Amino acid sequence: MEGVVDGSGAQLVVAELVRVQGLLRQLEAHLSAPCSVELCRGLAAQIVALTDRSIGIATRSFSSASGGGAHFADTAPPMPALTSCTPSPLSDGSDHQPFRTTNAKKRKTTARWTSQVRVSAAGGAEGPADDGHSWRKYGQKDILGAKHPRGYYRCTHRNTQGCTATKQVQRTDDDASLFDVVYHGEHTCRPGGASAAAAKRPHAQTLLQSLSASLTVNTDTNTPLTPENRATAPPLQQQQSVSASPVASDSYGLGGAGYGDWRCCDGDLQEVVSALATVTSAPDHAAMDAADFMSYCFDFDPAVYGGIVGTPSFFL
DNA sequence: CACATTTGACCAGA
DNA sequence: TCTGGTCAAATGTG
């Protein structure tokens, strides 16, 4: 793995995971016998808080590592979750292009963006590390006030698979080894380089997705928070955890228990326990360093993505 | 030959 | 009018 993680951070993460596991066992014991809902709720809240802390530790540990190829977004903005990107026509109707029917040069609205990350160059390469998708450069612009031009990329499979994902890459002014990468839309094609990394974490996505859904329900309607009903959900800040972790605070669901009107659903606690227990009892989890933990729990691998950190895709 | 990159021009929103 | 996002012809590469 390319990313270098300091040992103290990894130890902290492991220690936190051990505590999570202990709480899960307590919760399991309470669930097997009649118990106070409030007690279970309290345990669940502790588990959530510990999970957030673990993620935060892993993030900080990873970002402070020196010499590695990975850097985390230091100012990751809150990310509006877009369930789909508006397909843009492949041709438009400018005056001198008779085959165009609509205007594709129309500037996209800011609401279309999905994530912004800061990544490092791969081993001194000219651009950021491979992010697992294949991109085709379609433009470059000098940006006012910026030292370096901005490159515009779209998914190579735009025409063959209708994938509308695009990204913008710009070298940062203050550190030439760092790049700001803004992704638009979502990939509807199959990634290439990420497949190997995905194979390393066979069930983490599914488990954490169900965990997220289980932890976050509307207490008025008793319905889980889903991409479909998210539009009617309360403001994002009511769903966020108090963790300072950029990953956790940008995520829906995990930090949702106990905050705002969206609380842990008692009936789903068993599922939560099962999901968290599986994650924390993952093979060799005790030997995981921070990077491995992040890789296992979230949909990215520093070795593949060069340290990209955004909202895990399954939270979008 | 197919595909990717470069680059000047076009265009719409601010 | 300025700025930034996109187009598309020209060019490069394997």
Automatic annotation (TrEMBL):
<dbReference type="GO" id="GO:0003700">
    <property type="term" value="F:DNA-binding transcription factor activity"/>
</dbReference>
<dbReference type="GO" id="GO:0005634">
    <property type="term" value="C:nucleus"/>
</dbReference>
<dbReference type="GO" id="GO:0000976">
    <property type="term" value="F:transcription cis-regulatory region binding"/>
</dbReference>
<protein>
    <recommendedName>
        <fullName>WRKY domain-containing protein</fullName>
    </recommendedName>
</protein>
<dbReference type="GO" id="GO:0010193">
    <property type="term" value="P:response to ozone"/>
</dbReference>
<keyword id="KW-0238">DNA-binding</keyword>
<dbReference type="GO" id="GO:0010150">
    <property type="term" value="P:leaf senescence"/>
</dbReference>
<dbReference type="InterPro" id="IPR044810">
    <property type="entry name" value="WRKY_plant"/>
</dbReference>
<dbReference type="InterPro" id="IPR003657">
    <property type="entry name" value="WRKY_dom"/>
</dbReference>
<feature type="region of interest" description="Disordered">
    <location>
        <begin position="218"/>
        <end position="248"/>
    </location>
</feature>
<keyword id="KW-0805">Transcription regulation</keyword>
<dbReference type="Pfam" id="PF03106">
    <property type="entry name" value="WRKY"/>
</dbReference>
<keyword id="KW-0804">Transcription</keyword>
<feature type="domain" description="WRKY">
    <location>
        <begin position="124"/>
        <end position="187"/>
    </location>
</feature>
<feature type="compositionally biased region" description="Low complexity">
    <location>
        <begin position="233"/>
        <end position="248"/>
    </location>
</feature>
<dbReference type="GO" id="GO:0009751">
    <property type="term" value="P:response to salicylic acid"/>
</dbReference>
<dbReference type="InterPro" id="IPR036576">
    <property type="entry name" value="WRKY_dom_sf"/>
</dbReference>
<feature type="region of interest" description="Disordered">
    <location>
        <begin position="86"/>
        <end position="115"/>
    </location>
</feature>
<keyword id="KW-0539">Nucleus</keyword>
<comment type="similarity">
    <text>Belongs to the WRKY group III family.</text>
</comment>
<dbReference type="GO" id="GO:0042542">
    <property type="term" value="P:response to hydrogen peroxide"/>
</dbReference>
